[in-house]
Amino acid sequence: MKRILLMVFRSIFNLPFWLIRIHQLCDVQKYDAQTRYRFLRKIISIIIKRGRINIHVTGLENIPQENGYILFPNHQGLFDALAIIETHQKPLVTVMKKEVKNIIVIKQVITMLQAEIIDREDIRQSMEVIMNMTHRVNSGENFVIFAEGTRSKQGNTLLDFKGGSFKSATKAKCPIVPVALIDSYKAFDTGDAKKLTVQIHYLKPLYYDDYKDMKSTEIAETVAGMIKEKIKLETAEQC
Fold first, then answer.
1. Packing angle between helix 33-50 and helix 80-87, nearest 10 degrees?
2. In sequence order, what E strands does 124-235 have?
3. Distance of alpha carbon 136 from alpha carbon 155, whole angstroms
4. What is the pLDDT of residues 21-32, one digit of tens each?
5. Contact status, residue 205 vs residue 175, Cβ threshold 8 Å
6. Which long-range contacts (CB under 8 A, 24 or more apart) does 149-153 make?
7. Which long-range contacts does 130-137 make (Cβ < 8 Å, 24+ apart)?
8. What are 184-193's pLDDT values in tens digits?
9. Residue 74: helix, strand or coil by DSSP?
10. What is the rounded average pLDDT for all residues in the chain?
11. pLDDT single digits (tens) 195-204
12. Which domains, ranges and CATH numbers included, belong to the chain?
């Protein structure tokens, strides 16, 4: 909370313009995805710096050149999405839980990104989201989804990745990009505002030929294993 307040305080004179512009960019018929996403990245880049956060990113070369892929990061905290958008240049569509869809500003961001809203308690609605994602990925859009389903609240330790989160990828036969986030939870979930470095590592993607013979639960275990190994390697080097 301290860091969020710091970001708001240092951006107080920018906020009116940003809010007006965000409201304008919610007109998705007038503004294309690149324009909307570029403005969002600009704001995020500014507030990250004002929040005394440095992002160390590796593996950008692992992001597929062709559009139509899904990022699967671990989920540490509220800062995760900001770190991903800051470091990922091409427009992304997020999958968000229904609980956040009416929160001020976030609901405008949902419109700007044309995010998919999922109700994990409603199987039919979840399947509709999977089918929508499949269609949109096949149409060339790029997605990010947190396969743990919720924040781990255990620092750099992962929760189990849910196999159902990968069904849209298997149906779309698209590249799966594992993403390892390290120390992201320290940004907003610790009550601290000290200078901080958050790591984000884009790992080598799994293409359809790599996973076509695997069950969704096996894909989930494989992706989670890749992320765990990267976190273990990077945190060991810090010691």
1. 120
2. 143-144, 176-182, 196-202
3. 32
4. 999 999 999 999
5. yes
6. 149/75, 149/120, 150/75, 150/97, 151/75, 151/76, 151/77, 151/78, 151/185, 151/189, 152/74, 152/75, 152/76, 152/185, 153/185, 153/189
7. 130/164, 130/167, 130/168, 130/171, 131/168, 131/171, 133/70, 133/95, 133/168, 133/172, 134/168, 134/171, 134/172, 136/93, 137/68, 137/69, 137/70, 137/168, 137/169, 137/172, 137/174
8. 999 988 888 8
9. coil
10. 93
11. 999 999 999 9
12. 2-238 (3.40.1130.10)
Q: E strands of the chain, at which residues?
A: 53-58, 70-73, 93-97, 116-118, 143-144, 176-182, 196-202
**Beta strands at 116-118 and 93-97: parallel, antiparallel or unpaired:** parallel
The pLDDT score that the predictor gives to residue 121 is 80
